[in-house]
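Sharing a chain and its predicted structure for anyone who wants a worked example. Both blocks are below, sequence first, tokens second.
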Amino acid sequence: MAKKSEIKFEVSLDENNVPEKIFWYAQDGQKESEAKAFLLSVLDKDTKDTLKLDLWTKDLQIDEMDKLMFNTFNSLADTYFNSTNNEALASQIKNFAQFFGEETEILQRKS
């Protein structure tokens, strides 16, 4: 039998079903960790539709969301390049990440 691994998310909700706390755990030696947000995209094998689940806790600050998005854009560029070898488009995604980082003041503007 092929090896399996499980990743679990546990979300504590307030009385209005707004996430208060998010915990995640991966079987492969990872201890349970607390998160303030997560973004999940899954490509359905049969329909080819992308299913999304984006959650964040109610105490997530805007600067934390900015940092999450900046890092996600950079990671998407790397993932896209590694899976397609399309350097031109991956570079455009990186350029947008740079722009986003400057606009949100995560990065200093290039002179």
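Comments welcome. The mean pLDDT is 94.
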